[in-house]
Amino acid sequence: MHQTRRGRQSIKASLFITCTIDQFYPQVGEAVVKVLRRLGVDVNFPEAQTCCGQPFFNGGYRQEAKDLARRFLDVFDGNDYVIVPSGSCGSMVRSFYSELFADDADALARAEDLASRTYEFSEFIVNVLEVTDVGASFAGKVTYHDACHLLRELHVEDQPRSLIQAVKGVELVEMEASQACCGFGGLFSVKFPHISTAILDSKLQSIEASGADVVVANDSGCLMQMGGAMSRRNMKAKPMHLAELLAQEGGRA
Amino acid sequence: MSEVKSKEFQSASKAALNDKGLQRLLGRVVHGFADLRDAAVEEVTEPVWEQLRERARSIKQQTLANLDYYLELVDKSVTRNGGHVHFAKDADEANKIVLEIAKRHDVKRVVKSKSMVSEEMGINQVLEANGIEPVETDLGEYIIQLAKETPFHIIAPALHKSREQVSDLFHDWLKSQPTNEIEELCRIARDELRDKFATADMGITGANFIVAETGTVMLVTNEGNGRMTTSAPRVLVTLAGMEKVVPALEDLATFIRLLPRSATGQRISAYTTFLGGPRSATDEDGPEEYHLVLVDNGRMNVLKDPEMREVLQCIRCGACLNTCPVYQKVGGHAYGWVYSGPIGAILTPLLVGMDEGKELPFASSLCGACKDVCPVKIDIPRLLLRLRGRATEGGNGVKGSAPWIQKLMVRRWFSSVKTRQAMNRSAKLGRLLQRPVARGGRIKRIPLPMVSGWTQQRDFPALAPKSFSEVWRDSLDKP
């Protein structure tokens, strides 16, 4: 593969696939594996993993969140990179485990170690592998939605865009207010569906106005939210995870 | 204290979304403020802005860490200037202090410039009940006073009123001719207020900042009403939350660059007023008597709460409201008390109590846009998460109060993700149960309590026939 750097073959990474992708969107997980293997990464999937605890944490159920986070630390013990195809789950581990373990020095140290080797999917490819062209091709107009936690907690903004731009045949069009929230917010979308979908309306208008065939995001929460309304309304644009786009080899929208 | 309706957030937010006129105004005005702020920051340049924010946060943190000392210094400085300083434990005590001053001077009419702490106190009702006429002189505050409403926004209290509505209000209350001209509406209000300024016995102001070393109160206004309020009446009272203190005059140089830009995108507000005592022998105008009322109303409890203390850094610019996707849709009144938006969702449960305010920390998608624009770098999402923990599980003197059915569902969910085996078992059961409602990988209606709202306007994804872990084991494990 072009752009392959020396030593790539030795990079080992564990997948933190997220419970949403595990149960609802396994094809995204398959795409992640495909792309990483194409780039020569030795991918491992610790099967014991379940949930990082974020839904409980966000709901105020700190005890449950702590139990799951402790379990997560065990599952991902070691020295491997941890790759997660979701900004929100990634920020739970990188930003909020330290909050959860503020009064537990041992767990805190382990959480900080884990945070230091945890990368979101696009961030890992661009910052660690130093690759932007992953050898994908796809004919279509693509717009990118900035998932909130990916953007504001992990500060990943340019990486997905450069990866999309390098896909052969893709035209990247920026939608208006790409950084505006889609209204998902996990529990928020359940507790306040009327506000959640009102926020979503603005997002869908931006997507539609961009004229894109595909809206890409790196967070299955946003994709669940946007995709759920896009299918209900039979919108022209389709939701797609970045990994699915990067796994394409000549497909059409 | 003013009335709290935050428990009604759910229904109030629905009503706001159904109000077409309100939705039109919200879409235009709120985004407008946010855009102006962004442009102002761009002009200053991002690195300089970041330095200012960092400095502001550090000044506020250091002041809060030694607040007792600085409050004493304020007391000394204002007294030295010839003013009187009062400390009020809560809204009632603050109201009593103001009322006593008013009675002592036989005050019939009070002109007020904008003060959010006075909204906490509900001072206008107290004055009215005692036969004293309070007149709001900030145009937005004046409008909502006529409409008998509460502020819709921290800095733009009448943001939700269209010019037609304002014209109707003026027509009803002031007998003015209906007009759609904003200049004309301003003229009507100005004429009306001019007379009030000239005849008021007492002025009441808020405070944007109080300088401890000099006893100087700084006011940021745009209409000149602040200056009229502080110079015309013979008695002047400043109401301020105890967290408004900064140590030295030079600190204002930082905040004066941050506040107007964050609030309205202005480089500086039209008027920046400094006061802090009665008129001196050489002054041509100004009050004969000056009082500063420092109001606690829950703040000292927040100060003692290390998880929440940073909310006291807030300078009430309103930037977090303007950028908040929730505020942009539901506006200010849905929050049910004085402060709205992300900062209101923190301040209300802390100042009023979790019992009343527990809905609000959940009324956020946690998108974090508020944190990025906050001029004093309050980590708003993190504070909201901490309050959620208290609301659900309890802690810090709060009793957890999640509904039992929610607790039950959460327990069920928790045990289904506790181990991989449990997760696989639950998924298997889920796939069976979803059969009647799943079509083509989508669920159009979830027939379950508490979650059925999800599918009113959105499809929910069906559980995949095979989870990723199963796919991995079957075909991906051995590349």
Q: What secondary-structure arrangement, pairings included, does this model have?
A:
The complex is a heterodimer of chains A (253) and B (479).
Chain A: E1 12-15, H1 19-23, H2 26-38, E2 42-44, H3 54-58, H4 62-75, E3 81-84, H5 87-100, H6 105-116, E4 118-120, H7 121-128, E5 137-144, H8 148-152, H9 158-165, E6 168-172, H10 187-191, H11 193-210, E7 214-217, H12 220-232, E8 238-241, H13 242-247, E9 249-252
Parallel strand pairs in A: 1-2, 1-3, 3-4, 5-6, 5-7, 5-9, 7-8
Helix pairs in contact in A: 5-6, 7-9
Chain B: H1 9-18, H2 20-44, H3 46-65, H4 67-80, E1 84-88, H5 91-104, E2 109-112, H6 116-121, H7 123-129, E3 133-136, H8 139-146, H9 163-174, H10 182-199, E4 202-205, E5 209-211, E6 216-221, H11 225-231, E7 235-241, E8 245-246, H12 251-264, E9 271-275, E10 289-295, H13 299-303, H14 319-323, H15 325-330, H16 341-351, H17 354-357, H18 369-373, H19 380-393, E11 394-395, E12 398-399, H20 404-417, H21 420-433, E13 438-439, E14 442-443, E15 460-461, H22 468-476
Parallel strand pairs in B: 1-10, 2-3, 2-4, 4-7, 5-8, 7-10
Antiparallel strand pairs in B: 5-6, 6-9, 11-12, 13-14, 14-15
Helix pairs in contact in B: 2-3, 2-12, 3-12, 9-10, 16-19
In summary, what is this structure?
The complex is a heterodimer of chains A (253) and B (479). With 253 residues, chain A is an alpha/beta fold.
How would you explain this protein's 3D organization?
The complex is a heterodimer of chains A (253) and B (479). Chain A is of the alpha/beta class and 253 residues long. Chain A has 13 helices and nine strands. Helices cover 50% and strands 15% of the residues of chain A. In chain A, β7, α12 (220-232) and β8 (238-241) form a beta-alpha-beta unit. In chain A, α5 packs antiparallel against α6. The mean pLDDT of chain A is 94. Chain B contains 22 helices and 15 strands. Chain B has 479 residues and is of the alpha/beta class. Chain B has helices at residues 9-18, 20-44, 46-65, 67-80, 91-104, 116-121, 123-129, 139-146, 163-174, 182-199, 225-231, 251-264, 299-303, 319-323, 325-330, 341-351, 354-357, 369-373, 380-393, 404-417, 420-433, 468-476, and strands at residues 84-88, 109-112, 133-136, 202-205, 209-211, 216-221, 235-241, 245-246, 271-275, 289-295, 394-395, 398-399, 438-439, 442-443, 460-461. A six-stranded parallel β-sheet of chain B has the order 1-10-7-4-2-3, with helices on both faces. In chain B, β5 and β6 (216-221) form a beta hairpin. The longest helix of chain B is centred in the N-terminal third of the chain and has 25 residues, at 20-44. Chain B starts with 8 loop residues before the first helix and ends with a helix. Chains A and B meet through α1, α2, α3, α4 and α8 of A and α1, α15, α18, α19 and α20 of B.
